[in-house]
Design brief:
Layout: E1 10-13, H1 19-26, E2 30-32, H2 42-48, E3 54-57, H3 65-70, E4 76-79, H4 89-94, E5 98-100, H5 107-122, H6 125-133, E6 154-158, H7 162-175, E7 178-182, H8 189-192, E8 198-199, H9 202-208, E9 211-214, H10 228-233, E10 239-242, H11 251-259, E11 265-268, H12 279-282, E12 287-289, H13 298-315
Parallel strand pairs: 1-2, 1-3, 3-4, 4-5, 6-7, 6-9, 7-8, 9-10, 10-11, 11-12
Helix pairs in contact: 5-7
Bound molecules: (2R)-2,3-dihydroxypropanoic acid.
Amino acid sequence: MTAGLTMKPQVLVARAVFPAVIARLAEHFEVEANPGDEVWRGAELARRLQGKAGAFTTGSERIDAALLVACPELRAVCNMAVGYNNIDVDACSARGVIVTNTPDVLTETTADFGFALMMAAARRIAESERFLRAGEWKHWSYDMLTGSDVHGATLGILGMGRIGQAIARRGALGFGMRVIYHNRSRLDPALEAPLGARYVDKEQLLREADHLVIVVPYSPASHHAVGAAELALMKPTATLTNIARGGVVDDPALAAALRQHCIAAAGLDVYEGEPHVHPDLLTLPNVVLTPHIASATVATRIAMADLAADNLIAALGFGPSAGRPPTPVNPGVLGPR
Ligand code: DGY
């Protein structure tokens, strides 16, 4: 080090991200970036994090207790995702490591996609396209690729957080749907009223929904929250859409339900063990499969990356809100204001 120069803290940007975000981080930090966009796990991730005060992560990097022990200088983990089930938050809190996520900036974009996936499943859009491209369209017929209506149907939402409420708004206000939901706790009636949303227990939700949309965060409590027993309660005409996390739905049980027409169709953006997709799902015509892209618009991905960078800069004591990252997951680590 040259005498008189202060070393910048080191941070790891664990995946490829917009160059402007790297440039902004480089104003404050020595940045190790990952332009090749490899997914670093376990020992490789721990090796890359040696000497780093902060990590800019995505849902692909697992930050667990063993990694924290191996990386004692780590003080901030800033996830470019609203979900943070890839991070052991309790282990981070125990070591005084601040964790942040990117809520709000992706709510409407993700809700748009959830609605699109639900409509694609209900109206058999992907299946129709495959049919046409395969040259199977010979003539019009009265029952060709008939699906189920979305307008006026019952929208069931499992997990009524920000994204669930944004989907409910689309359904109630745009498509005249009756909205029922199940959540850990009931919403304030002032939030329910404009949507006509009704809180029901999980069994009623499954029995009554024409279109079930799953937006519940993943946790041990929501692991396989929808499996064979739950699918058996649903209407044979119903659709299921999962934009939450893989592992909330039991994928092999869903594949069996789709094959046996226990439910009509599904739309999935997330999978247990992704990017691996359960092979049974790949063979079925009545499921629309997308590769975890619900938040993937250019504007929203820029907003997510910017917010993750704002969090990292503030968490490590720089910028206008030094010491106060905008969206902490474990604010207790920051101490009193
Ligand atoms: C999120 O933000 O949690 C999305 O699923 C992208 O990972």
